[in-house]
Fold this sequence. Notes:
Elements: H1 10-15, H2 20-42, H3 55-78, H4 85-103, H5 107-117, H6 124-135, H7 137-154, H8 158-162, E1 165-167, E2 173-175, H9 187-209, H10 216-227, H11 234-237
Antiparallel strand pairs: 1-2
Amino acid sequence: xxxxxxxxxxxxxxxxxxxxxxxxxxxxxxxxxxxxxxxxxxxxxxxxxxxxxxxxxxxxxxxxxxxxxxxxxxxxxxxxxxxxxxxxxxxxxxxxxxxxxxxxxxxxxxxxxxxxxxxxxxxxxxxxxxxxxxxxxxxxxxxxxxxxxxxxxxxxxxxxxxxxxxxxxxxxxxxxxxxxxxxxxxxxxxxxxxxxxxxxxxxxxxxxxxxxxxxxxxxxxxxxxxxxxxxxxxxxxxx
Length: 239
């Protein structure tokens, strides 16, 4: 049976952080899956020219960058290095949402793709507005809230920095550093981050399933190997 970290709420994990075995099992499953995704994407090396401005090239680049970022994020968490991880999470959200927008293939999204190839930054609000057009205001607000929660860590808010501190004698702040003792690193943050990572892997899997870079059979086989079950739930293959 797969780790219950898949689908676990980060808030619940933060409140009950001492699920060491589940986190370790999830880390092994996530590593197997992410490396499978990455290797599949590497089959498209030497397939796109430097000056090519196609959607297919952008799709492959964004999915490859997302896979690589999540592999790095997993490595950070396994080594109890959480501080840079949330920035990687936000990068992945931006990549996947931008790709969803490019896939719309509207006149507006095609112009944005052209600008992207010219080196312009496409703000995340652009993809959120597209989500509003397709799924409604509620979906846009939910995605905005999700993105803002990750941005809070990236922008170094008090809470984000506070997760790097424990309380010492007399409730005095103690900066937690893995170079002194990895045992000191707060388990609450790590457990919550594993859950966010699980959610982003699911989102990456869903985005991959919409591409021509992997077959549905390959994707199902990857999940079946990870979950140790041939009857892979639909939510693991497509959202």
